[in-house]
Design a protein that fits this description.
By secondary structure, the protein is mainly α. The protein has helices spanning 2-66, 71-109.
């Protein structure tokens, strides 16, 4: 008797969740497409952006070593170089969080 109530309760929950699962399917497809595109753009652009950041840090080091400018110039260029080095990592973190959301939605759709 108890087993029959559990089956009926499970069927009711399944039927209540079914419209939400169907509604979540296009969201998952859109998130997967966006995740793929952003991951591709992040991977391709990170090479160039890391080169720009490295060039900025090397320029700041040259300004300090050879006294080519003021310390304020060196700090500004160093800050920009560090920003460009960190930028692809931050973008990758955002893409991984979008992948986590997509995985949770897939786990909701496919029990």
């Amino acid at each position: 008797m108890l087993d029959m109530k559990a089956r009926i309760g499970g069927a009711i929950i399944f039927l209540l969740k079914l419209p939400f699962r169907v509604a979540a399917l296009p969201v998952v497809l859109a998130l997967a497409l966006i995740q793929f595109l952003t991951a591709l753009i992040t991977c391709l652009s990170s090479i160039i952006i890391n080169l720009i950041g490295t060039l900025g840090i090397a320029t700041a080091a040259c300004i300090w070593m050879f006294h080519l400018g003021t310390d304020a110039d060196a700090y500004r260029i160093l800050g920009q170089g560090i920003f460009f080095i960190v930028l692809p990592h931050a973008a990758g973190w955002i893409v991984s969080k979008a992948a986590d959301v997509c995985a949770r939605l897939i786990a909701f759709i496919i029990p």
